[in-house]
Amino acid sequence: MKVGIIGAGASGMMAAVTAAEYHAEVTLFEKNDRVGKKILATGNGKCNLGNLDFSMEKYYCDDKEKLEKIFSRFSVRDTISFFEENGVFLRNKNGYLYPYSEQASTILDLFRKLLQKAGVSIITSCMITDVSFDEKKCAFGVRTEEDYFEFDNLIIACGGPASQKKGEGTFGFRLAERFGHSLKPQVPGLVQLCSKDSFIKGMAGVRAQAELQLSAENTILSMQQGELQFTDYGISGIPVFQFSRQAAYALREGKKVTVEINLFPDYEEMDFRDRMSARFEKMKEDTLEEFLLGMTNKKISTALIKYAGWKTDDKVSSLGYRRVKELLNLYRRLRVHIHAVKGMENAQICAGGVVFNEVDDNLQSLRQRGLYLTGELLDVDGICGGYNLQWAWTSGYVAGRSAAINNQGDRKSDRK
Ligand SMILES: Cc1cc2nc3c(=O)[nH]c(=O)nc-3n(C[C@H](O)[C@H](O)[C@H](O)COP(=O)(O)OP(=O)(O)OC[C@H]3O[C@@H](n4cnc5c(N)ncnc54)[C@H](O)[C@@H]3O)c2cc1C
Fold first, then answer.
1. 237 CA to middle of ligand 1, Å?
2. How far apart are CA 319 and CA 286, in angstroms?
3. For residue 158, which of 83, 290, 323, 398 sits 20 to 30 Å off, Cα-Cα?
């Protein structure tokens, strides 16, 4: 069986190794000069390749039942076995899995070794320009800038536009459309949020443990807790990444999006209130700057004083308890108005993509038999924590295996 794979990213390399293991003659095309470049950037260079805390709740997908079935064929356990059996020690940090070396290059080097040993023909610096299906020959034609290849089965593993230069990375989507697939609108995921609120700039550079509540038109969409980062354009950090795709879709629908920040998530409301009224009684004669000393990072307090309309040397007693209380409330309910998410080029993943019910349980296209789609190309994405690479390994394995053994006669186009 001749199998062509477009894209040597995480899912494409896994598909290639698997298809070769099932005795296919595999050709892997990559537009970059090396395979798997993106892997080097994952997990801040450490490659968070999976997570033991695995459930369907970690994924966004329109058909979780089918997704779960696919994951059961190459699970987190299989990911662990795959890497360990190939000699990679793994490190478990509270369930987050990394190579023991904490070097993403370990994973890339492993794939390069496996591809070579499996006899996969790798063609790099090779941009695929066109793909067609010849009904008579029952074969896929793949055109590059200089050559033409034919395959029995074809896997599109091109990924999406996330972390690519503006306007790039949509080739896979266009190709899928050409074969009759429909696309769910794509938005950046695992990305920073932008705000024009005046106080944000004053807090830029500060990191704080916080609880965050994302709302659109007063409906709560998500709650997250973790290390928040204030930046000169808005907010960032893992908790922000986790709900950024919901913010992106809400903004796309023209909704008003806000994030309410609680900088004292460790304190109950009543406890915080009691402490603040005691503080007021004790420090009435302080200036606001003195009064707020020790609450949080000084930059936050200074920005909040300004935002509330006061000066750092204003006396607490001159404001009175009601105004001071309003100021203190900002530490628990700081509302940030979000006007945009950062662009696709800053995103770790692209949410949306090829509609999931247009592929079968083997990730074979229901529009064109013999054609497979993997990874980010499909409308499946996970939260931060190794879940997207897990999807890349699983989808690559499932598609690679099926493409290698699928020689059913009926590969005629089902396109309408
Ligand atoms: C900075 C960053 C950090 C991340 N960290 C993590 C992490 O720690 N854990 C985690 O689970 N996920 C992480 N991710 C997400 C994860 O990397 C992706 O979800 C995953 O790589 C998607 O795999 P894929 O095979 O679908 O696509 P990709 O890995 O993007 O691979 C697609 C490949 O296809 C090639 N290609 C595209 N078009 C063509 C063409 N026309 N011809 C030939 N080749 C083509 C591309 O060059 C690329 O090599 C991170 C992403 C980024 C950007």
1. 20
2. 11
3. 83
Decide: 100 and 89 in contact? Cβ < 8 Å.
yes
**What contacts 381, CB < 8 A, 6 or more positions away?**
59, 60, 61, 189, 245, 349, 350, 351, 388, 391
Q: Which percentage of the chain shows pLDDT scores above 90?
A: 96
> Domain 2-186+352-405: what homologous superfamily?
FAD/NAD(P)-binding domain (3.50.50.60)
What does the alpha-carbon distance between residue 141 and residue 130 come to, in Å, rounded to a whole number? 8
Q: Read out DSSP for 76-105? A: HHHHHHHHHHTT--EEEETTEEEETT--HH
* Sequence letter at residue 321: Y
pLDDT in tens, 296-316: 999 999 999 999 999 999 999
Ligand 1 center to 274 CA (angstroms):
50
**375 within 8 A of 396, measured Cβ to Cβ:** yes
Q: Residue 409 pLDDT more than 70?
A: no
Per-residue pLDDT of 235-288, as tens digits, reads: 999 999 999 999 999 999 999 999 999 999 999 999 999 999 999 999 999 999
- Domains in the chain: boundaries: 2-186+352-405, 192-342
Cα 385 from Cα 60, distance rounded (Å): 14
Q: Using alpha carbons, select from 396, 384, 364 the residue that is nearest to residue 140.
A: 364
Which residues contact residue 49 at a Cβ distance below 8 angstroms, ignoring those fewer than 6 apart? 42, 43, 79, 83, 90, 97, 98, 99, 107, 386, 389, 390, 393
Cα first-last separation, the chain? 27
User: Residue 146 has what pLDDT?
Assistant: 87
CB within 8 A of 272, min separation 6: which ones?
264, 332
Contact residues of ligand 1, CB 6 A cut-off: 6-12, 29-32, 38, 41-43, 47-48, 127-128, 157-159, 162-163, 171, 348-349, 375-376, 386-389, 392
- Distance from the alpha carbon of residue 311 to the mean position of ligand 1, in angstroms: 49
Cα 396 to ligand 1 centre (Å): 12
Whether the pTM exceeds 0.85: the reply is: yes
